[in-house]
Amino acid sequence: MYFNKHKSQRAIAKEMGIHSETVKRAVKNPEQKYHMNVDRDKPVNGDFEERIKHLLEYNSKQPKNQKLTKRRIYELIREEENKLSNSGGENDGCSFT
């Protein structure tokens, strides 16, 4: 990619999800083979993924001055998590939207 597509080392690192130092070493020593032999796991947010998608969809339909910030979305999810853990894991129907 570095030599063929003339991409910067930083762009390659970002695209592949690896550290820029790894790209730098690979460019410096092209004979050494680097393989991504394991797919990386997603961050641990599986339980909240649907809720995040719902909040983002809701947010996209709001006027500019009423949109939620990233910070507020995070706080809403944390509050819901605390409510769930305090109620024994049952959803009590409390929701922002």
What can you tell me about this protein's structure?
The protein has 97 residues and is mainly alpha-helical. The chain folds into 2 domains: 38 residues, no CATH class; 41 residues, no CATH class. It is built from 4 helices and no strands. Helix 1 crosses helix 2. 1% of the residues are buried.
Name the poorly predicted regions. none
End-to-end C-alpha gap: 45 Å
Strands, total number:
0
* Molecular shape: elongated
Q: What structural category do the secondary elements indicate?
A: mainly alpha
* Mean pLDDT rating: 77
Tally of domains: 2
The whole-angstrom Rg is 21 Å
Percent of residues in helices = 40-55%
Order of helices and strands: HHHH
The biggest sheet amounts to:
none
How much β-strand is present in the residues? under 5%
What order do the helices and strands come in, and which of them pair?
Elements: H1 9-16, H2 20-28, H3 49-60, H4 70-86
What are the key terms here?
single chain; 97 residues; mainly alpha; 4 helices; elongated
In short:
The chain contains 4 helices and no strands. With 97 residues, it is an all-alpha fold. Helix 1 packs across helix 2.
